[in-house]
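Dear colleagues,

As part of the handover before I leave the project, I'm documenting each prediction I ran so the next person doesn't have to rerun anything. This entry is a single chain, and its sequence is reproduced below.
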Amino acid sequence: MNSRERLLTAMNLDEPDHVPLCFKWWERPYLIDKSDRWHNELERVLRLLKLGIDDTITLKVPISLNPEIKTKVSKIHPPGEKYPLIVKEYHTAKGVLKRIVRQTPDWPHGDDIPLFTDFVIPKARSIKFLVEKEEDLEALSCLLAEPSDRELKIFLEDADKIRSFADNHGVLVEAGMAYEEGVEGGVVGADALHWLCGLENTIKAAYTKPEFIQRILDVIFEWDIRYIRLAVESGAVDLIVHRGWYENADFWPPKLYKKFILPYVKKLADYVHKHGLKFCYIMSMSIMPLLNFFKEAGVDVLYGVDPVQGGAKLQQAKREIGDGICIWGGVNSSVTLKLWSREEIEKAVADAIETLAPGGGFILSAIDQIFPDTPWENVKIMLNTWKRLADYPISS
């Protein structure tokens, strides 16, 4: 059984030859030594497969600014401001969108402001968000567009190379979680609300101006469907990933989630299933109040089940969604793998496998990811424990 077959078997809620172990390496481009980095994702995949670890390849779908839009970036330093201000404007046929941020020492984007970045969310940094009033919505609706012929040609050529590599090496291809040096993207959903409007502004408006929030979500949905359609048309993808880092119950309690997020996720999942692909939902915090919504939405795979920082109750999660959703996670990274003893790490891995693996539908991982400061020695403890316990059949 190759890696792709193993992961898809788990995603189909069956038992593969052994429990898949599949980490994410979004911020760590090396295995052990920082000086020994992989040069691209394909190189990483080959290294991990040699270790017996499953991996996936991410197809990067172009996110294209409308070519008719003119952008203007300037920097000012008004009296009384400790830091310079970066001002970025998008001049559209239907109005101007403006964003202003403080260029604090930890600002990672130089003299620019990317459209999608977590670094604009703090109110202490952002003086003006891109979307703040009804008049901004018309301009927002024409912000992104279909890729140009050149972008599409490059994308399809890359997709062909990735599919060929994936077929030759038995690797699963996913699309939808795009991250590169602090710039976010992909199938963004309500995460984009917080980048566009600010976190506090979004949740406040969900109560006081629900129609405003819904109209923004309608625009974002068109972006997401375009992204997924391009991924589908590439013919290279097995799995569509919808990032929901900011869609958890800490931000969207069940009542709000049911009103705004559930219909959105369900429409995405329906579209993905219509085209014969699997739908993965990323959420690492406060998932427990929302488990039944995930089943209702048609989620195939839930990435991010974390029993430490995320508060996931593994037995309850397996009981409530394990018959319909593949659980991906089970072990915490930034606390368990960074701070715990050998014995504690071994127990955490054993608990995850013994609780979540019986009957299939489980992919082991450390959540959120293997970070740059995750000690390799502790990752090895997890690997060795997994190798000892991973073979099916597994008794609960």
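The mean pLDDT is 96. The CA atoms of residues 66 and 145 lie 5 Å apart.

All the best with the project,
I.
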